[in-house]
Write a structure and sequence with these properties.
It is built from 5 helices and 10 strands, in the order αβαβαβαββββββαβ. It has 210 residues and is an alpha/beta fold.
Length: 210
Amino acid sequence: MTWRQMPALAVKLLLLAWVVGGCSRPAPPPPLELPVYFTCDTQGRLEPCGCFAGQFGGLTRLKTVLDTEASTNALRMDVGDAIGGHEDYDLIEYRHVLRAFAAMHYDVLNLGGREAQFSAAQLRAIKTNSPVPILSANLIDKATGQPMFDSYRIVQRGAFRIGIIGVLDPRGLAESPGDGLAVSDMESAINRSLAEMRGKTDLVILLAFT
C-alpha cells in the first residue's frame, strides 16, 4: 500500500463507521394503554341530599367507579366547577372536595367559572394548601399580572411525558371573576404554554372550561 492510498482507505473506514452508527437507533418505547378520566360540574356538597333531580351519586360513587375500573396508568382530571358557588361555605366545601380528589388520586384540577369567583387572596390560600395540583393558564392576578396557578403540568406514564394545560373561557363566566382577578385571552395562554412545553412532552391534553 502506498502513502497515496492510505487517506482514501481512512475516509472509507470513517464513512463505514458513520453508516453503521447511524443505523443503530434506540428501540421505541413499548405501547402504553392510557385510560383518561374527565370529570366536570361536580358542584360538590358536604352531605348527600337526595332531594334534587339529576344527581349521579356524588364523589363516593365516583371513587367506587375509579377504584373498580381505573388502572395504575389512568389519568384522572377535573375540568372545573367542582363547587356550587363562591360563598364562605363554598370555600369550606372546596377544601373538602380537594381532599376527596386527592383520595381518588387525581393528577390535576382545572379551575372553572365558580372557582374563579373566589378572591385572589382566597385562591392563594387554596393553592398553598391544595393536596392536588390546580391549573389555570389564563386566570390572572391583577397585582402581579401573572397566572394565579401553574399554566400546565407534565406527568409521566411509562416512557411517555404528558403535558396537561388548563384554561377558562372568559365568555362562559356567569359573573365577573373575584376580587383582584382577571381572565386573559384563552388562545394566547394556550399558545404560551405550548411554546414552554415544546420538546418536553410526547402528548398534550387541554382542559378547557368553556
